[in-house]
Amino acid sequence: MTTADPIQIESARPRLRDCLLGEIVKILSAKSTSVTIALSIGVAVFVTVLITVFNDGSANPLSLSLIGPFLGTWLLVVLAANVVATEYSTGMIQQSLAVTPRRGRLIASKLLFVAAISLLSGLVLSFLCYAVGQLILSGTDRPSIGLGDVSTVRAVTVTGVFTLIYPLIAASLAFVTRHATGAVLLTLLIAFFPMVMAELGSSTWAEIAVRFAPGGPMESLTGQAQPGTVGYMETGSAVGVTIGWLSIFVAAAFASQLRRDE
Amino acid sequence: MIQTHHLTKHYGDATVVDDLSFTVPNGSITGFLGPNGAGKSTTMRMILGLDRPSDGVALVDGEKFPDLRAPSRTVGAMLESGSRQPHLTARAYLAWQARAARLSKSRIDDVLDQTGLGEVARKQVRDFSLGMRQRLGIASALLGDPTHLILDEPINGLDPQGVLWARSLFKELANEGRTVFISSHLLSEMETVADRIIVIGQGRLIVESTMADLHQHARSSHTVAVSPEPDELVRLLERSDASVERDNTDKSGRTLTIRNLSAAQVGEIVADSGLPLHHLAQVQTTLEQAFMDLTAGALEYEGTENDPTLASVAATARMGG
Known about the structure:
Family (chain B): Belongs to the ABC transporter superfamily.
Largest sheet of chain B: 6 strands, mixed
InterPro entries (chain B): AAA+_ATPase, ABC_transporter-like_ATP-bd, ABC_transporter-like_CS, P-loop_NTPase
Domain ABC transporter (chain B): 2-227
Number of domains of chain B: 2
Low-confidence stretches of chain B: 299-303, 305-321
GO molecular function (chain B): ATP binding; ATP hydrolysis activity
Strand content of chain A: under 5%
CATH architecture of the largest domain in chain B: 3-Layer(aba) Sandwich
Shape of chain B: elongated
CATH class of the largest domain in chain B: Alpha Beta
Strand order of the largest sheet of chain B: 5-6-7-3-8-9
Oligomer: heterodimer
Pfam families (chain B): ABC_tran
C-alpha cells in the first residue's frame, strides 16, 4: 500500500462535527468530568437549601433560589479551565493536534463542548434550585413563587443560560494561559471586579463596571434589575454586551494559538 | 514521501534546526539519528505542524500536514510517551482519536490486538508501564491505517520481546509500501531495522545515506603510533602530508593518531628516519565510532545529500601492516 484511495479519503474527511464528537468522548471518558458536574449541582442545591431554610422571610423568594446556581457555576468554571489546560499539562495537545491539525477546529470543538455542557448543567442547576427553594418555602408556610409567572420563568431560564458565560470565558483564558489555575483566577477577577469597583471607584466608573462587566447584563435579562437602577440595560443592549464580551474572549483564544508552538 | 526543504527553527537566539533538507521515501524504514538535543524531535514536530518553522517547509506527499484531507489516514504519529491523559483508559484514548478522525470503531480493537494491549484496554494509562505506553503510542499511530508513520523513539522502554516485535512490525509496514520514519539516539537499534539513515547534529544534516553505504564507509581505519619523541614524529609525518592528532587521553603526549596514512606507510617513513617507535597499529573504525565522530563536532560539518563521505570519518585507506 503506497497511497490511499482518494475517493475513500474524501468521503472519510473529518469535519468539525467529528472533532467535537471526539472531544466529547475524550472529556466524558474522564471520571472527573461527571464528578465535577455532580458536585456543581450538589453545591448549588446545598447552598439553596441553606439560604432558604435560614432565611427569615425578608428576602425575595425568587432571589433566594438564584444564588445557588451562581455558586455552582464556579465548579463548571474549574471544569472548563481543565478541559483546555489539561491538554497542555499532560502534553496531550500534541496528539490532539496530530489527529486534528487544524487548530481552529480543535479550539472551536472544545469551546462548543464547554458552552453546551455549561448550558445544560446551568439549566438543570437553575430549575432544580428553583424547585428545591420554592418547595422549602411553601413547606414552611413562607411566600413562594410558582412557574406560572412569565417573569419567574424568564428569570430562572436566563440564570440557567447565563451559566455558560464564565465557563466559556475560563476555557478561552485557558487557551491563552495554558494553565487551569491562572484561567480560573482571571475569571474570578473578571466576575468580581465590578463589585470591587462599585465599592472603591467613583460613581461613574462603578456604574460602567457594574453595567458593562461580562456578568452585568444578566440582572437586566433576568428582570431583577429594574429600569432606572444602576445595573439596568435594555434587552437588546444586554444581549449585545454579553455577546461582545464572549466574542472578545473567544477571539483571544483563537488568536493565542495562531502562531504559537505546541 | 516525507520531505523537508531548508527547514529551520530558531528559539530566540538559538538555532535548533538549521537549513535541514532531506527525503524519506516510501516503502522503506528511515532512521533519524542524532545525539540528544540534535533537533530530531523538533524536526518531527515541524513535520506534524506542532511547531512552526522559522524558515523552510516540511511536506507529506507534497502537502503540509495540516492541509491533508484526512491527516490520520495519511500520517500516524507517535510522539513522546508522556503525551496522553493519564486518567483515560487505553480504549478511551484510542476511541476519541477514532471519533475525531472519523475512523471505524473496529480499528480500536484491531490496533489493541496488534500491539498486544487487548487485555489491558480498560486499564488507565497512568497504570501502564513505560513499555505499555510505548505500545499504546504505536497503536495510536496505526489507528488510521496510515500510509506514513512518524515515530519518535518508539523502541524506548520496550522489553527485548517488545523490541523484536516492533522491529518486525516496522519491516512489515515498510514492505507494504508505507513510509516509516523513526527517530532514535541508538545507532545499534537503527542498524538492525533501518534501510536508510539520516543523521543530524546541532540541527544540521550530517549524513543522508542508505545503511549499506554507511556501513561501507565506516569500514575505514586510522593508525595509532606511540613514540618517545612525539614532536619529532609529528614534524616528520606532516612533511609527508599526514593528518596527525595527539591523543588527549594520553597525558604523556606520546600517542598520535594518523588519519591518512596506513600503519605500513607510517612504519616506512619512521624506519627511514631512525626515530624510535614503541607502538604502531592499524585501528578499525566501527559504525558506532564513525557515528560518534560524525556527531562529535557537528558544526564543523556541512550537510551533504546522498554522499556519506566526510572529512571526520577516517578516510578509507589501504590497510597496512
